[in-house]
Amino acid sequence: MDTLRHWDGLKWKIFAAVILIDHVHVLAQSLPKGEGGAFDLAEIIHSVKSFSSQKINRFGGNVGSLWQDERYDRIVRDEAEFLEKWQYIRNNPSKEGWDSQPEEYPWLYEKGR
User: Fold this and answer.
1) Residue 12 and residue 28: Cα distance in Å, rounded?
2) What is d(CA 65, CA 57) in angstroms, rounded to the nearest whole number?
């Protein structure tokens, strides 16, 4: 979670994130660059995947790829869809077998909580 949040407020704004055993969901917005445009989401994700896989592999004594090459980006078009995605992230641990309330899941981040 620290790796996901490293660029929060610098290159992207994270609204919600959840880390599960085999995947991660993040609801985030790329932030504007000083010279125009916005930070590239692919570059941010690459940075997060690279750093976290090195750290996890070092901790576990492993080598090689940890993350899949793919990612699925979605453009959130309105407030209703934004709230739907947030709820999906929030409820994902219970879908995966976590029986407690979402707030009790240790790998859930929600901005403002």
Assistant:
1) 6
2) 9
Q: What is the CATH number of the domain that holds 46?
A: 3.30.70.1290
- Order of strands, sheet of 24-30, starting from the edge strand that comes earlier in the sequence: 24-30, 12-19, 108-110
| Kind plus residue range of the DSSP H or E element containing 87 | helix 79-95
Please state the domain count of the chain: 1
Mean pLDDT of 61-65: 77
Mean pLDDT (whole number) for 57-84: 85
The amino acid that residue 48 corresponds to is V
User: If you average pLDDT over every residue of the chain, what do you get?
Assistant: 89
Q: What are 9-50's pLDDT values in tens digits?
A: 999 999 999 998 778 899 999 999 988 999 999 899 889 888
Residue with the two structure tokens 């029986």: 99
Domain holding 70, by residue range, is 2-110
